[in-house]
């Protein structure tokens, strides 16, 4: 249709080219959007197909074959900071940039490239998925730093759950520390791996606009937050979504988000969605949840059925204790959330399972979605009548 006449084409182009997706397996300058279309693009997605083959030796990536486009196996060489900065600034309508790695080859985005992207004035949303974030080195910008976009309200950094050691690089934490200090007052959505999270900085800042906060990854021994989560994240008063999809490394025990003896005011009065991977029955949080809550997920991350070994250290990568139905029943009975419409549960089945499922059926009349991950505690355990459930 857009080829029939110039007027129709002029009307169609802003729609046809508002979103651009590029599969990148060579320097970006070779495949970038033509200059004639850059002024129309609102959203850019770059899918990085692996350009270098790596394997690990003693915890560090080592090239298996000759490196292409880069001389550092930790850094992706297809993004040139000068070209990226110039090209993106030629896109006045740009609102969102997303970088995603399609393979499990571990490599990251250099800081100069991140700086070129995050300082684009109209940028509202940035997503980095399965790339490391400046893993090799981070040098705090000097006086010439243009500043992170004042329009940026969404920052999402996600790594694969099933990656092996090392699960983070120190420059990644330094990078996040700097970025969060620059834009904490205006961020509305924040997603980061718990291994890289600069908790001291997060707890010491105010987050007046933050609506969604997601932590994902593995809590390691000696790297837990110093304060309970109810204190650590009390600076996020407008939070509506809190996701704590956290695995525990061997030696780390589950902890209550609001332990007994901690006297604080409930910090999230607008909370609508809560995800907790290791629910503790004695957690004081359950009795304080607001009536605004619509979704509650008490499911392990990763699921209890997914066992993964660290072949280098000859041990299980994470640790969990699967809930009992009685524990989950105690949690739900402590909550006062009659308007709940989505519920997720994961547990080992025991004889008290019927009480849990019966309570769910009677207590939450507005429930529209129920997700249950149920494990038999032994091969001899009796089968459950699906009809009765």
Walkthrough of the structure:
- With 389 residues, the protein is of the alpha/beta class.
- Helices cover 21% and strands 23% of the residues.
- The protein has helices at residues 6-16, 35-38, 81-89, 111-118, 170-183, 199-204, 229-232, 285-288, 325-334, 353-363; strands at 19-24, 43-48, 54-57, 60-63, 96-101, 108-109, 125-129, 132-133, 154-158, 189-193, 212-219, 241-248, 273-276, 295-298, 309-310, 315-316, 342-349, 369-376.
- Strands 1-2-5-7-9-10-11-12-13-14-17-18 form a twelve-stranded parallel β-sheet, with no helix packed on it. Strands 3-4 form a two-stranded antiparallel sheet. A two-stranded parallel sheet has the order 6-8.
- It is globular, with a radius of gyration of 24 Å.
- The relative contact order is 0.07.
- Mean pLDDT is 80; it is low at 49-65 and 309-316.
């Amino acid at each position: 249709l857009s080829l029939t006449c110039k007027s129709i084409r002029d009307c169609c182009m802003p729609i046809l080219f508002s979103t651009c997706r590029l599969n990148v397996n060579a320097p970006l300058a070779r495949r970038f959007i033509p200059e004639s279309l850059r002024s129309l693009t609102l959203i850019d997605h770059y899918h990085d197909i692996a350009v270098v083959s790596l394997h690990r030796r003693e915890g560090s990536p080592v090239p298996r074959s000759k490196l292409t486009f880069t001389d550092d196996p930790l850094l992706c060489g297809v993004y040139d900071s000068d070209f990226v900065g110039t090209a993106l600034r030629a896109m006045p309508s740009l609102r969102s940039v997303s970088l995603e790695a399609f393979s499990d080859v571990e490599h990251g985005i250099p800081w100069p490239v991140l700086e070129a992207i995050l300082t684009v004035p109209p940028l509202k949303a940035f997503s980095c998925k399965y790339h490391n974030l400046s893993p090799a080195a981070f040098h705090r910008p000097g006086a010439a730093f243009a500043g992170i976009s004042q329009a940026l309200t969404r920052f999402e950094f996600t790594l694969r759950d099933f990656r092996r050691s090392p699960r983070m690089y120190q420059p990644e934490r330094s990078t996040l520390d700097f970025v969060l200090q620059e834009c904490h007052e205006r961020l509305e959505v924040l997603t980061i791996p718990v291994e890289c999270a600069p908790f001291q900085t997060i707890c010491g800042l105010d987050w007046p606009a933050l609506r969604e906060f997601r932590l994902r990854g593995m809590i390691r021994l000696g790297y837990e937050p110093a304060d309970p989560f109810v204190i650590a994240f009390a600076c996020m008063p407008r939070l509506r979504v809190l996701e704590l999809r956290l695995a525990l490394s061997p030696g780390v025990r589950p902890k209550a988000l609001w332990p007994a003896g901690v006297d604080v005011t409930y910090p999230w009065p607008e909370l609508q969605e809560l995800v907790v991977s290791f629910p503790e029955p004695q957690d004081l949080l359950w009795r304080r949840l607001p009536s605004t809550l619509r979704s509650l997920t008490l499911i392990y991350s990763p699921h209890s059925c997914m066992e993964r070994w660290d072949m280098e250290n000859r041990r299980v990568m994470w640790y969990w204790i699967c809930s009992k139905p009685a524990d989950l029943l105690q949690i739900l009975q402590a909550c006062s959330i009659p308007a709940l419409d989505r519920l997720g549960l994961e547990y080992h089945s025991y004889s008290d399972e019927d009480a849990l499922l019966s309570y769910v059926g009677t207590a939450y009349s507005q429930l529209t979605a129920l997700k249950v991950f149920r494990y038999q505690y032994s091969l001899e355990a009796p089968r459950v009548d699906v009809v009765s459930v």
